[in-house]
Amino acid sequence: RVADLCAAVAWAVAPAADLFQLKAGKMVLEVRPRLDWHKGSAVGYFARHWGDLPGGPPLAVFLGDDVTDEDAFAALP
Fold this sequence. Notes:
By secondary structure, this protein is an alpha+beta fold. It is built from three helices and two strands; from the N terminus they run αββαα. It has helices at residues 2-13, 39-50, 70-75, and strands at residues 20-24, 29-33. A hairpin with a 4-residue loop joins strand 1 (20-24) and strand 2 (29-33).
């Protein structure tokens, strides 16, 4: 059952609750670091560091359909 799986993940993360947090989505349970870092931060990092490639910056494409993906969508132009 989904509830049992979520409980197992929460139990596994609990000893490191000062380092990690859980974010629930529609059909996902995401384990995130307790930092200001998320999928949008990662997308922004790649855009900044890969933006000066010869031939211009690469085209960034991010696919997702859950609330945990919203940070990445907000980081893209």
